[in-house]
Every structure is written in structure tokens, then in C-alpha cells.
Amino acid sequence: MGYATIWQFYILCFISITITNCDIKKEALGADNEIRVICSRYDEDAIRDFLTSIFSDTIYTPEPEPLNKLRFYRPESYNDLRRQAYLVVAAIGQDVTNPGVRLMKKLLSEHDFQSTQSNDPVLLSKDLYAKNQLFLVINARDRSQLSATVESKKELIRDQYEEQFINRQSKYLFDSHRREDVEEQFTNQYGWTIKVPWGWEVIRNSPDSNFVWLGRELPFQWISIHWQIGNIITDELTIGDYVWNFPKTYYGNIRFHDHKFSMEKMYFNSYRAWMCEGIWEFSDDNTAQGGPFRYYLFYDTNTNRTFQINTILYHPGKDKSIVLRQMDLIARSFRISS
Questions:
Q1: What order of strands is seen across the sheet that includes strand 305-314?
Q2: Which of 67, 207, 278, 297 is the most exposed place for a label (fewest CB within 10 A)?
Q3: Total-model pTM
Q4: Looking at the domain covering 177-336, what would its CATH class be?
Q5: Is residue 279 within 8 Å of residue 260, measured between CB atoms?
Q6: Where do the structural domains in the chain lie, given as residue ranges?
């Protein structure tokens, strides 16, 4: 995608939208895993297909759970929902008997209405009615035009939604109260630190075994860090041994399961790393209770240490996507002192 197209995509085109409230904008409302979609019932199937193709991520907890949930509303709900953090207003066609089209004609000038249906039907704006808001407009000529834009828009839209999630959740987790006493202790004791939100406790701090275990209740969340001297990352078989042995060695009563297990190379902060994720279960429980886990393995050349960072969640019967992503933000706040 060319620079001009990207520029148009971000800077956009809501010139014609009149905002009468000139007061300082309040923080956007709503959960960070819910996207509110306003469209007519005539267009809902097509809009759902388009958005599902963009927000297609699923996590296994162990049951499949979408990372983002689409909530559909009718055009008459627009004023009640316009301060939501993730808002989509969508319409297809020019039939004014379609209430979605009528709403779109109120939001866009005639020039912008025709331009989007002739050229780019997907428009994105930030902080339109509230702080930390993403406002997505979809105004397509027909289904074919909309479907043709998926590949060109998918990465840009996902990046913006991920960036906003990180900004909003980082503010929630880290900007108010943190366990700075614990963070300072780790820096002084081990030469690394991790942001510890209020409510988290040190379950175990074992200098002899180079192991730190943090936890929080309701829901039960664990984050643990282990390190050893030297580079132990040699081949996938060796890495697999470290992954499978980790819970038995450091937790005792849980194990990782091969259901939906995956392993891939990626970057953890600036480190080349291996990331594994899947399902854990209690090893002494015949009911096979458990939940999702994530595990990172990487080597720091400056301190000649290999680190393992593991996150575990136990939240049976409840939505887990936001909590999992919060835990990943905490894990990725890990820093090694220079």
C-alpha cells in the first residue's frame, strides 16, 4: 500500500462530521474485547463476514473463545453508543429505506458518501467522541466492493486496534498503583525487573534456584520467571524438553497438555525467542481442570542468561481473553538492567 493511501486511511475524512460538544472529551467506554457494530438488519450478515475476516483470532481456554466479540445494534442506538471505545458504523448501498444508509447520509457529506462508495469504503478515525476511541465507518457500494478491501485493510485495522488495547490496558494496569517495592527488590537482587500491578503478590522468590513466582487471585493468575547461565537454546527437541518439564519442576501439581499446543519463533521485546502456548491441567485431578498458558524462552547475550517466562490462568467458565492479554502485557514489561 502506497504512502498516500495510508495517509488517507489514517487522517481521513470526517471533515463533514459535526461534533457539537466542544468540551474536553471523556475516556471512551466499554470493554477492550467488544466491538460495537451499528448497522441495519439488511446489512448485518455482510458486515459480520467482513469484520470476522479481519478479527479472526481465536484462543483456546480450552474451549475456543474469540479474541474480539462483535456486538450488533441498530442505527437508532447510535447516540447511545457513540462514546464506545470500539465503534463501527456500517451501511451498504444507497437505498434510503435502509436505516443504516440514512444514518450514513447524516454522518457524511454527499461528497464523502459518494467518494467512499466509488473508492475506499472503509474509514478510520481516532478519538472522535471520546479519548482512546476507534471509530470505523464502512460505507460500501455493494458486497463485492467491501469484500475486495479485506486484504488491503486487515493489517492496518488490526494494528490500530492492538495499539489501542495496549494503551488502554497499560494505563489500567500500570499508571495508578504498582508494587514498586517488589520491582526494586528484583532489580537489586537479580538485575532484571518486571512491572507488578497492585494486587499481585510474590508466591515464591528462590535465589538458589533462580526462580520467581508471582500470583493474583480472582481470577487466579500466575507469572513466573526462571533463568540460568549460558545459552540453552540449541534445537527444537531441547526446547521442547524445557517446556514440558517446566511446570513439573517449578509448580509440582500441574502439567502442560498437547491439546492445541503450538510453538513458534518470534520476538519477545527485542529478543529472539521461542513462544509456546496451549492448555495446562492439574496433574493430580481426574476432572482435567485447567486453562490456558503461554511460555517464552530467550537468551540475553549481555548477561549470558537464558530466561523462561510463563503465564498461567485459571478462570473456569468465564471469559479469559482480556485477562490473558493483560498477563502478556505484564510479562512483556520484563526488562534486564544494562
A1: 201-206, 211-216, 220-229, 305-314, 290-300, 271-282, 254-268
A2: 207
A3: 0.88
A4: alpha beta
A5: yes
A6: 3-173, 177-336
